Amino acid sequence: MRSPLSKTVVQIQPSGIRKFFDIVSEMKDAISLGVGEPDFDTPWHVREEGIYSLEKGKTFYTSNAGLKELKIEICNYLKRRFDLDYHYENETIVTVGGSEAIDIGLRAMLDPGDEVLIPQPCYVSYHPCTILAGGVPVVIELKEENDFKLTRQQLLDAITEKTKVLILPYPNNPTGAIMTYDDLKEIADVIVEKDLYVISDEIYSELTYGQKHVSIASFPGLKERTIVINGFSKSYAMTGWRLGYAVGPAEIIKQMVKIHQFAIMCAPTNSQYAGIEALRNGDADVEMMRDAYDQRRKYLLHAFRNMGLDCFEPYGAFYVFPSIKKFGMTSDEFATKLLKEEKVAVVPGTAFGDCGEGFLRISYAYSIENLKVAIERMQKFVEKHKIR
Amino acid sequence: MREKILEIIDKNSKISAADLAIILGTTEEEVVAAIKDMEEDAIICGYPTLINWDKVHCEKVTALIEVKVTPQRGIGFDKIAERIYRFDEVQSVYLMSGGFDLTVIITGRTMKEVATFVSEKLAPMEAVLSTATHFVLKKYKEHGLPLVHKSQDERMLISP
User: Which domains does chain A have, with CATH numbers?
Assistant: First the structure.
């Protein structure tokens, strides 16, 4: 009998997170600092709007690219928050979470053999989605000494004749790194000169601390060659609603809508109605959550420094990425031991790329009370395993 | 910094000054001093606990009383409000706009106790023109917090 499976799919490694998830699930009363989603509930006025849309019988498909009102609100929002100018009609698509936008963005732009630059450590889907789209992933290993930012030199070194797309995942999951205006300026002209396209995953754009997020698409000449991906999951605590969007040049969005219409039809209708409410009346909620995350971020950093866990200061998302190199263990060993001995679940840095070795991703999407208990346990663990 | 401190302790008065200092990026001494100042200025007036008395086997009755009064020359409503809030049974007193003047919230052990207070203490006051007493049947939410079990964390333990 022939193999029923595609060789392309089989060669893709399952997510390293999955493996760890299975171990954690078997542990009773483990405290987790391992989640990649907000601990807040979706603001009630947004949920209420979703319920109301159901009551009104909004249970049909929407047009493929999304509700017109939602697309208009998305464009207003991007203008208001990040000074980005997009037209709702042909430069905007509503997707099933930011993750669908990553997938169809890559598929719309890649031909077999095209290289995609992926700065790691990063979110787990860019690499497999590139392969599924027929592209060739080329990893750029980000360095702690650069605060996990992509430098001009690293970018130049990675570019070949086949390079077509650069993934720009900032604010970054798992490192919490951001790229400021000055950092982006360093690489903007390289992108134009080398005729690259950018997929800028800005899903954490509302969660930056002490400075406002800047989009690469706001630089001259970059709007024409950038797909900006964003969504509702992180900023409005709406992960389960599966609602995201992409904006970019009409030419690319048109092809993305084509893939989307065949594969997905449209994003969930009720989620789209809730999304309109979130963008119209949700600014205060976002600010409240950002303030809370910032307090926890400071709390966690302070605790790590006190217990002697080296950690660069992250200014974005809701993760810290401490180094555990001085413990003489791999990330996997450290995380597994921490789970077994102290019942605290964290994610090994290697789940986000090989260069995550020597680091842990620790999420602060938890209340201070929860963090406190976890920190006490970690402190005990660090004391015990410190190499003297 | 004062407003930030107030916002946080409004929801959690148990937080320590040391923790406040960390999350606000300042020193413990400064937090302690700011809180002391605000206590002295009666900006912070107390640190009560939010209790759902329905769950304790001890009877308590709460009533909201609409009170119409005659304001007095020169001192308006303040004097009469003070005469009312000085009673220990009285939990809250608010001056209102609209159809009546003062909202008085009182608690007692029994309905009779509340009724006695209204008929013997409150209603006979010279300035009080009329009262309308509404008994509370069930409390759902107080001080911005629902009086129910905290919901469990339903998130997957590990996610990308």
Answer: 7-42+284-381 (3.90.1150.10), 59-282 (3.40.640.10)
